[in-house]
Every structure is written in C-alpha cells, then in structure tokens.
C-alpha cells in the first residue's frame, strides 16, 4: 500500500513538472521594436509598475516651437534601427502611438566624466555608447547589452515595483553611474516641473520627479540603492536663471552635497572598479512617497542576488505563459507567446506594497482588497485585450474594473477613464470605452463589485454633455461635422458604447436605462448615407457634407481611419448593418472590395498611425477600428471568405522579427487579436457573451482557466493550405451558427475544428 502511495506521488510529481512547459524561450521582446510596433525590449514582469528598458536617442517633442514628427518613432524610447544607447530608464509604454514616461535614466560610463548624451553620429562626444545587436539579448524579464565605447556589460531585470541593474566594469579609478533626471520620452524644455534628490548615505539616494506632459500632473518617487559605496558624487544643474533662489547659494551644491532640487538636474556617482567588477543598483518606484519607494524595494528585493531576481521574473512569466499551451510551428509559437507576453504588460500596477496609490484628486488612497491599475489605452484595448482578460485573467480584470470605478469616484468631472495615465486622464482618442470594459466584465460574470453603481457611472459618463460632442449626439443623434473633425468616428463609437450600457442595464433589469440606451445605440444610422453606401459626415442642417472621399483619412470626420474601414463599425448590430447595405450578397461583395482594392499612399500620407505595412487592400489592420471586420463574413453566406482573410492577416501582419508588427501594438490590442484569431474565435462585440468563429492557426491549444477547468481547442488536418473550416464541434456537438458562448469556454470543454483546403460554400 505504501509503495503504491509513493508511486502515485511520484507519478503526480512527474505530471506536474511536465505540465509546466518552458515557454519563456519563445518570447522575443525584440518583436515590434522596429518600424511601427513601438514595443520596448527591456525587462518587466506581468503588469509590472517598472519597465526597465534602453533608450536609443534623445529627440525632442518639438523643434523651433513645432511638433517634431521624428519623435513618433520613439514612443517606446528604443528604435531597433539605431546604433547607440543613451541609457536605461524605468518607465515605458508598450506599443502606443503617443508617449510620455522614460523616467530616471541611468547610464554607466568610464573615463572623463561627460554629462551630456552626445550625438548618434559621434557617441564618444557624450555619455551614450555604440552597441550592436550581436551583443544584445532581450528575454522576458531580462535584458543584456554590451556598451562598446567603454566596454561595459549592462544587464537589467525587474520585480513589480523595482528595477535591478548589473553593470560589469573594466578596471578604472574613473567609473561612473549617471542618473539623468532631465531625460524623458516625448521630452521638451518645460516638461520637468520639479525634481528633488536626497543622498541619504553612500549607498542610498531617494527623491522624486514631477512632469507636465501627456499626463498633466505626474509625480514619480524613487529610492535608489547601490551594491557598493560610491566614493564621491555630484550634480550638474541646467536650470535657467531665475529672479529669486533664496539663500542656498551659501553652499557648493555641485559636489558631494546631499540635498538637491531644481527643474533640470543630472547626478553622477563615482567609483573605483576592478577588472570585471560588478556594480548593482536597485531602483524602486512609488506613486506616493520616497518612503513607500524604499518600502517597495525592501519588500521585493531584499538582497543583491541579480540572478535570483532574474530567475524569479522569468518564473513569473513562465507561470503566466503556461495559462495557454499551444501546439503549432516554431515561428507561430514565437509569435503567439510574444503576443501573450505583450498582452500581459499592460495595464500596469499603480499600487505600492502597502496598498497606497495616488488618485485623480492627487490625494493618497488605499486600495481595499484589490490592486489598483493604470495605463488603460481603452480606445485600443476594449476591443480584444480586455475580453481576453475576462477569459485568461478574470481576477485581474475584476481589479481593473475596480480601478476604473475608483478613477470615477476621484474624478472632479465624474467620468470613467478615457485613457488612464498615472493619476491622470490624458483624454486620448474617441468614445467612452470604459463602459464597454465594465459591461463586458459584468455580463461575463467577472466583476464582483456593485453592478448597479457601475451602471450609474457608465450612464453619467455617457451623458457628460460638454465632452467631445456628447451634447450634440444626445440632441441630434449625431455630431455635426462643423462641430468636430472626428464627428463620424465619435458618433459610431458612442453608439456602440451605448449598446454596451444597454446590455448591462438589461442584465440588471434597469428597463428605463435599457430603453434609453438601446435607442441611442441606433444612432449609427444617422451617419449612413444610403446613396453612397458609406458612413459620411453630416452637417447641422441634416444634409451630408458634399466634399467627401471614402478613401481619405484626413478631413472626412474619422480618427485614424477612413470611411471604407469605419463604415463597417457597427459591431453591436451586424445584421442591421448588412440589411441597410443591401443584404448578404451585396455586403459580402463590399467586404471583398475592401480586402482586394488598392489604397494609394496619398490617402494615408498624413496619418502617423497608418503605413503600408499594416494594410491589406484597403483594410487597415495596423490600426484598430476594423479589427472585427474579417469576422463580419459570418453574417453573410460566405463565412469561408472570412476564414481565408483571417489566416492571411495572421501570416502577413505578424512575424517573428523586429519589424514583425504591421502597426502599433497599442498596449496589447494587436497581440490580443493575434491570440484570439490563432485560437479560432474573436469578440466582435464586447458586452455580448458571444464569440465569432474564424480559422485557427494552432493545431492544438489548452486554456488553463483560473477556475481550475480547461478548455481545449483542436484543429484536425491543420496546415498552411487548409485555411477553411469544414465543420466545428463543441463537446462533440456540431455548431451551425459560427458562434460560441463565453460560458462554453469558462465551463471547460473541447472545441474541434475540421480544416480543409476547399471552402465550404
């Protein structure tokens, strides 16, 4: 009996070990760092508050008082094509089309102290260094690069709130670590409002930095600890002359002075190093205080074992990656697990280890029973990323909705977040898509807070008359073209959001609200021009704007898109859209035209977010508004055409290379599309519990759900040629309507696709 018990234990242990695959090996953070992806290659942990990554240039947001278009290439701070590194900073956005952050840049140097970064053409003119990709390693939770100019090896890893550096120096009595408190992404002269640095002792420095940028009032506190005492330190101030400075001039603050304050400050710390000596840094962040930053550091990294921290970071990543185990080709695995990695970077933790965080009211709050998050790029992520969380990260999704509700409670405008950013709302993009995320979470049973309070917050936000044309929208049923340059986009996105509110109201039996918002959700019809067959700007007098080109992305009433793409933006009522556009046959032909037409460069020449790499025909996959469009074939008699297009998009728009993304990853939205579509289904209309079926790329996938159940997906006869679906079985029963329910997944079971090279017409 004892022998049998021991054998059973050994078998269980063996099964447990084999069940956890080494999936970190397939994550390539370098994907998307070239061209339009705007991802960063540095070290972070899932949903981490620290994103420790290299910067490759110092471009200003403006030149001669005007926007500098080249700065757009540096939204993530790092551009793969560059040949120099200026340092390593602790905060980054992943895949965005606008930017901020890049806080607390650290650069190791040797020899004569240089406090300016120098130029890319002559890196030795400053503290920057040349490097090559041959000496660069980017992994989940770890980054390494050799800085050629001073022969210094730089290594980075991280915990949730702490970045850890390890620099291996040559022998020298002039080794330095520079802390540049002026550096930043989308930087400009007046961006840093104030900086404070306190040298506590010869291994500990604390302080904070306040900036005014995309986030209007953003303060980040830090604690910085060295593994080795520095022998001397100092500052370089670039502050302009001002009328009054008090009496601090009694001190020489440039050398070995322990308390520094100003707008434009750089610090340096000097060391003697032996050949191959490693100097390590722990750099902790806090949204609340220097004391909290130090508490975060002590809680998350108690010692100086860099390799242990790296192993913990990669183990954490591996646990998250193993939530989905796929069988497919090696390149597809790289694409899939890098997409999963990118999807689990944002939103980011905005809570200290003691539960404190700074709110929109700039006061200190405590998250009671939840983790507070920021970095909600909602115009992008409501479409697929947040629905993906409701399957694979329901616990975190619950906390994200609670974070949105806390945002609402602290907002002086009584609005849910539009784009949440470090105790600010930067108000970027169209719609009020928090309501979609909230409705989707409640409809799918993810949120355990007060659903009626959440619905009230959604309604209040949707009735904020002086925000982006909502008053006109409520009164007229559309936004007049004279009143807004993005009038059509806003009307269409508000209509979808209103439908999401209606679904939530329906679930809660709030009939009056349901009736009001289901009516508002039909406002998309007011911008549909039956004569041209397109969504079109409408004037205040009720007539359509005469000068109109559905291919143009500029001056036509749309944001980051054109009418050809936005005319399909009725995700909440595809059947009605098909009907007004002439029925299934004409609608399918219209979709065919979108995917097969040629869109000349002139029609997107002035749009930063759309480039040729992200376009198939006239379909723009490199931006979000049409991400659901290939699935609309399911509302025609030609579902097979959608299956072919989905597989085409998967293979064309995602590659395991630095330039492998056809557009901004946008905090994980592009990646979430890839994962959903690779698995064979997609949330066309978040707020519904339906998913639309497509053409899976994987041969097999196991979704290990938080509730302990598994959902298995199998594609029989999967191949590059077999892109068409012959039939689909759910738990052995054939599906006839191209849809599955959220409950079908969460309850566990098996979805089987039978693939074929011949379309099922």
Give an overview of the whole structure.
This protein is an alpha+beta fold. It is built from 18 helices and 38 strands. Strand 8 and strand 9 (142-147) form a beta hairpin. The chain is globular and about 80 Å long. Residues 292-756 form the Glycosyl hydrolase family domain.
- Share of residues in helices: 25-40%
User: What is the arithmetic mean of pLDDT?
Assistant: 96
The side-by-side strand order for the widest beta sheet comes to 8-9-10-11-19-15-14-13-17
Assign an overall shape: globular
Unreliable sequence segments: 1-18
Beta-strand content:
15-25%
CA gyration radius, whole angstroms: 27 Å
Beta-strand segment tally: 38
Instruction: Let me know the largest β-sheet.
Output: 9 strands, antiparallel
* Alpha carbon gap, first and last residue: 60 Å
How many H/I helices?
18
Structural class: alpha+beta
Set down the secondary structure blueprint.
Blueprint: H1 2-19, E1 53-55, E2 62-63, E3 66-67, E4 84-85, E5 87-89, E6 105-110, E7 129-130, E8 136-139, E9 142-147, E10 152-158, E11 162-169, E12 172-180, E13 192-201, E14 204-211, E15 218-226, E16 232-237, E17 259-262, E18 265-273, E19 277-286, H2 290-300, H3 306-321, E20 324-327, H4 330-343, E21 348-349, E22 356-358, E23 364-366, E24 373-374, E25 376-377, H5 378-381, H6 385-392, H7 394-410, E26 419-420, H8 434-443, H9 451-462, H10 470-476, H11 487-507, H12 511-520, E27 528-529, E28 534-535, H13 563-566, H14 574-580, H15 584-596, E29 615-616, E30 619-620, H16 639-653, H17 669-679, E31 681-682, E32 690-693, E33 700-704, E34 710-716, E35 724-730, E36 733-734, E37 739-741, H18 742-746, E38 749-756
Parallel strand pairs: 34-38
Antiparallel strand pairs: 1-5, 2-3, 4-7, 6-12, 8-9, 9-10, 10-11, 11-19, 12-18, 13-14, 13-17, 14-15, 15-19, 16-18, 20-33, 21-24, 22-23, 25-26, 27-28, 29-30, 31-32, 32-37, 33-34, 35-36, 35-38
Helix pairs in contact: 4-17, 6-7, 7-8, 8-9, 8-11, 9-11, 11-12
Keywords: Calcium, Hydrolase, Signal
Domain Glycosyl hydrolase family 92 N-terminal: 26-286
Organism: Pedobacter rhodius
């Amino acid at each position: 009996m004892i022998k049998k018990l021991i054998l059973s234990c050994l078998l269980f242990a063996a099964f447990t070990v084999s069940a956890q695959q080494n999936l970190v090996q397939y994550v390539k953070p370098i994907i998307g760092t070239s061209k339009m992806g705007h991802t960063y290659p540095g070290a972070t942990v899932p949903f981490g508050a620290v994103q420790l990554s290299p910067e490759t240039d110092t471009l200003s947001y403006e030149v001669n008082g005007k926007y500098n278009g080249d700065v757009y290439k540096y939204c993530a701070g790092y551009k793969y094509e560059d040949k120099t590194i200026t340092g390593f900073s602790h905060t980054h956005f992943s895949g965005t089309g606008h930017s901020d952050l890049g806080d607390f840049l650290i650069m190791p140097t040797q020899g004569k102290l240089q406090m300016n970064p120098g130029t890319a053409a002559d890196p030795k003119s400053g503290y920057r260094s040349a490097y090559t990709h041959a000496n660069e390693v980017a992994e989940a939770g770890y980054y390494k690069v050799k800085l050629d100019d001073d022969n210094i090896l730089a290594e980075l890893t991280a915990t949730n709130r702490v970045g850890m550096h390890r620099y291996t120096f040559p022998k020298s009595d002039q080794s330095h670590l520079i802390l540049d408190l002026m550096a930043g992404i989308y930087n400009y002269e007046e961006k840093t409002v104030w900086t404070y640095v306190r040298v506590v002792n010869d291994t500990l420095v604390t302080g904070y930095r306040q900036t005014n940028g995309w986030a209007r009032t953003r303060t980040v506190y830090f604690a910085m600890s060295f593994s080795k005492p520095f022998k001397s330190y100092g500052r370089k101030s670039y502050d302009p002359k001002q009328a009054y400075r008090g009496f601090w001039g009694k001190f020489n603050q440039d050398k070995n002075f322990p308390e520094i304050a100003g707008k434009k400050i750089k610090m340096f710390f000097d060391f003697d190093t032996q050949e191959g000596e490693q100097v390590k840094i722990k750099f902790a962040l806090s949204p609340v205080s220097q004391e909290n930053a130090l508490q975060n550091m002590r809680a998350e990294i108690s010692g100086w074992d860099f390799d242990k921290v790296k192993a913990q970071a990669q183990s954490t990543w591996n646990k998250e990656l193993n939530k989905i185990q796929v069988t497919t080709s090696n390149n597809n695995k790289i694409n899939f697990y890098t997409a999963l990695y990118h999807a689990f970077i944002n939103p980011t933790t905005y809570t200290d280890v003691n539960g404190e965080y700074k709110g929109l009211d700039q006061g200190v709050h405590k998250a009671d029973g939840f983790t507070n998050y920021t970095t909600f790029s909602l115009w992008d992520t409501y479409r697929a990323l947040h629905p993906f969380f409701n399957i694979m990260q329901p616990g975190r999704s619950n906390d994200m909705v609670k974070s949105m509700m806390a945002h609402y409670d602290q907002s002086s405008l009584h609005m849910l977040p539009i784009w949440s950013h470090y105790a600010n709302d930067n108000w970027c993009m169209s719609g009020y898509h928090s309501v979609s995320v909230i409705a989707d979470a409640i409809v799918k049973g993810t949120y355990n807070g007060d659903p009626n309070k959440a619905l009230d917050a959604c309604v209040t936000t949707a009735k904020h008359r002086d925000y982006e044309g909502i008053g006109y929208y409520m009164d007229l049923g559309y936004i007049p073209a004279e009143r807004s340059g993005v009038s059509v986009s806003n009307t269409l996105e508000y209509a979808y959001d209103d439908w999401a509110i209606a679904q939530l109201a329906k679930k809660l039996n709030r009939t009056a609200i349901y009736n009001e918002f289901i009516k508002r959700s039909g406002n998309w019809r007011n911008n549909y021009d039956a004569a041209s067959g397109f969504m079109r700007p409408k004037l205040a007098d009720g007539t359509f704007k005469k000068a109109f080109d559905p291919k143009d992305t500029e001056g036509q009433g749309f944001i980051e898109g054109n009418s050809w793409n936005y005319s399909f933006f009725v995700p909440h009522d595809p059947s009605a859209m098909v009907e007004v556009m002439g029925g299934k046959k004409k609608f399918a032909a219209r979709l065919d035209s979108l995917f097969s037409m040629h869109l000349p460069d002139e029609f997107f020449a002035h749009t930063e977010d759309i480039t040729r790499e992200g376009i198939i025909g006239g379909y723009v996959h490199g931006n979000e508004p049409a991400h659901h469009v290939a699935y609309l074939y399911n509302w025609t008699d030609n579902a097979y055409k959608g299956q072919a297009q989905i597989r085409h998009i998967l293979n064309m728009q995602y590659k395991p290379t630095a330039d492998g993304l056809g557009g901004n990853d946008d905090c994980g939205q592009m990646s979430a599309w890839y994962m959903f579509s690779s698995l064979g289904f997609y949330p066309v209309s978040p707020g519904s519990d339906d998913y639309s079926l497509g053409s899976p790329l994987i041969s097999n996938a196991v979704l290990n759900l938080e509730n302990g159940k598994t959902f298995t997906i199998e594609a029989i006869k999967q191949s590059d040629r077999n892109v068409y679906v012959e039939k689909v079985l759910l738990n052995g029963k054939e599906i006839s309507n191209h849809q599955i329910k959220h409950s079908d997944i969460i309850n566990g079971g098996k979805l089987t696709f039978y693939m074929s090279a011949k379309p099922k017409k």
